[in-house]
Amino acid sequence: MKETYPFKLKSLPYDYDALEPFIDKETMHYHHDKHHLAYVNNLNKALENYPELHDKTLIWLLQNLENLPEAIQTAVRNNGGGVLNHNLFFDGMTPASSKAPVGRLAEAINRDFGSFENFKETFKKAALGRFGSGWAWLVSDENGNLKIVSTANQDVPMNLRVNPILEIDVWEHAYYLKYQNRRAEYIDNWFNVIDWNKAEELYNNPIV
Ligand code: MN3
Predict the structure, then answer these.
(1) CATH number of the domain that 113 lies in?
(2) Distance 173 CA to ligand 1 centre (A)
(3) Which domain holds residue 80?
(4) Same domain (yes/no): 123, 182
(5) I want to staple 105 with a disulfide (CB 3.0 to 4.6 A). Which of 11, 37, 150, 203 is the partner?
(6) Is the Cβ–Cβ distance between 36 and 9 less than 8 Å?
(7) Does some domain include residue 7?
C-alpha cells in the first residue's frame, strides 16, 4: 500500500483457473489482464504530468480527491478507485477458503450482525441491490464496528474514512461470461472463495 507513481499491475496471488468452478479462468483473464490493467494504465496517464503527485500513495490520492487538480479528479476517482478496488478484490479471494470468518473478525461479525448467516444475507442484499455497476463492501470504523455499504462505479467507501475488509465486484465484467445476468448465483459462488484470513488481517491492521 506504500506504492506510488508509476503504479504497476499486481499479479494474481493464485493461478487463473484456481478459483474454478466458482470463478472461471476466462473471466479471470479478462478481468485481471484487460480491465484491471486498463485502470492501472489510465491512472498513470492521468498522473503523468503532475510530478507533485508522484510521491503520493493511492490511498492518499483517493482520500484527497477534492484537493487534486480539477482536470484529473474524475480520472483519478475512476481509475485510482479501479486499481485499489481490484487489488483488494483479487487479493481477497483464495482457492483454499475457510468458508467462514475466523478469529477476531468472526467475533465482530457475530456481534454486529447476530450471526454469519445474517451477515451473508445482508451482504448479498447490498450486492444485489447495487443498480448498474459497482461494489458491495464490509468495512470497519475507527472503533472496529462493522458496516456493509455499496458504492457505484469504482468509488471507494466514504472516501476511505472507513477501512475496507471484504468486497465483491458486481460489474457485469466480473461475472457475465459464466453467469450472464444471474448476479445472485455469482454472489453465492463467490462466498466459496473468500479469503477470510486476509479479511481478518485487514480488520486487525486497517489500511486507512
Ligand atoms: Mn472489475
Answers:
(1) 3.55.40.20
(2) 6
(3) 25-91
(4) yes
(5) 203
(6) yes
(7) no
Q: In angstroms, what is the span from residue 31 Cα to ligand 1's centroid?
A: 6
Ion ligand 1: residues, CB within 5 A, are: 169, 171, 174
Question: Measured in angstroms, how far is the CA atom of residue 178 from the centroid of ligand 1?
Answer: 14
Report CA(159)–ligand 1 centroid distance (Å): 19
**CA pseudo-torsion sign 28, 31, 36, 37:** positive
Q: Tell whether pTM > 0.90.
A: yes
- CA 169 / ligand 1 centre spacing (Å): 6
Q: State in Å: Cα 107 to ligand 1 middle.
A: 30
Distance CA 176, CA 170 (A): 10
Q: How far does the centroid of ligand 1 lie from the alpha carbon of residue 179, in Å?
A: 15
Residue 145: what are its φ and ψ, rounded to 5°? -80, 140
How far does residue 44's CA lie from ligand 1's centre (Å)? 18
Residues above pLDDT 90, as percent of the chain: 99
Question: Is 172 contained in some domain?
Answer: yes
Single residue among 38, 68, 91 that ends a domain in this structure: 91
Q: Is residue 171 part of a domain?
A: yes
Cβ pair 6, 44 in contact under 8 A: yes
Q: Give per-residue pLDDT as tens, 31-84.
A: 999 999 999 999 999 999 999 999 999 999 999 999 999 999 999 999 999 999
- b/e sequence 184-207, b meaning 16+ C-beta within 10 Å: eebbebbeebbbbbbbbebbeeee
The tens digit of pLDDT for each residue in 142-163 reads 999 999 999 999 999 999 999 9
Q: Is the pLDDT of residue 1 over 90?
A: no
